[in-house]
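ok here's DUF4382 domain-containing protein, seq below lol
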Amino acid sequence: MVKSRIVLLVISLFSFWAWSCTPDDPSPKALVNVFLVDAPASWDSVIVELEGVELEIIAANRAGQLESIVIPYELADKKVDVSQLVAGVSLPIGRKEIALGTLTGIKLRLGTSHQLFQGEKGYSLPVPNQETEFPANISLELQAGISYDIYVDLDLERSIQVFKSSPLELSFQPQIAAFSTIDQGQIQGILSPTTLSPVIYAIQGSDSLSTQINGSGTFLFRLNPGTYTLFFDPKDERYAPTTRSGISVEKGKVTTLERITFSTN
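and the structure came out like this:
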């Protein structure tokens, strides 16, 4: 049911939104499309209440003045299973034509009702002080007539804290990052066996990003250009972790790895 909800959301959103021009404002604009993706954690499902995003822009025609532009999440059902947004799947939050300038920041706007599911059992995910806005930095020059895809990456692994294991008590402090695909490349591949729920880490220096596989074993990273080491943690002691080093990411290109199979211990 959760997966079908995501598919319906994507279809509905792309059917609903269209590029619209404002006839009484002939000034040049850029189109900004905002998507939600997930750096997943080891939970079956995490449902968040999504309200939209807020962009912070220094408009080219406003002499350095900072402006805030809200892009709402338009669907009536605001509950989104972000743990399904892996292996290249993303959820369109919204789109808007924006006057030219520099995009300097973005805030993810959430509601106050969030849940985590492990198996069939659900747990409340309270946010400290009932915060609803979560910022990330981004730097992007908007140029006339260009469509920009902006991704908001919600890192569930770092966002969810376990205070007590029995009974399970949790806290939710959303940690996000934002990036544009214009200057990035991708790493993709397939892991076996597909019955596992491994975590894959892309490591560069002291920084790392994580992701998981979908039902067919596929994973995908969107990364800045550079050289990375991938560490594959099977999260199952019957199998041994493995590493791939020296993987090059180039701007605008996809690096596809040969199928990776975990060895048994």
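fwiw The radius of gyration is 19 Å. kinda neat tbh
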